[in-house]
Amino acid sequence: MSSDNQWSADEDEGQLSRLIRKSRDSPFVPVGIAGFMAVVSYGLYKLKYRRNQKISIHLIHMRVAAQGFVVGAVTLGVLYSMYKDYIRPRFFNVSKK
């Protein structure tokens, strides 16, 4: 593979350093991951106290809540990226000469 290929994996880069690099590029990715883990953890904790609710219904509600959090984080990330790339340069960098 050529060295300028951005899709080739770095042999020296570990999982943690890759996650840190990606979180600098897209700051809402770790927020989405953390929210997903929090919703799933809370749902599994509440699994004991579901009363007379079926387990399948409880798991469906937990999945929908986790996916909703991730979709919300992705949406906020896209909006932030659009603001950073298009709106902020247009209105706040007036003297570009």
TrEMBL record:
Main location: mitochondrion
Compartment annotation: Mitochondrion membrane
Pfam families: HIG_1_N
Ranges of residues in domain HIG1: 1-92
GO biological process, one term: mitochondrial respirasome assembly
Record flagged with keyword Cytoplasm: no
Keywords: Membrane, Transmembrane, Transmembrane helix
InterPro entries: Hypoxia_induced_domain, RCF1
Name used for this protein in its record: HIG1 hypoxia inducible domain family member 1C
Organism name: Pipistrellus kuhlii (Kuhl's pipistrelle)
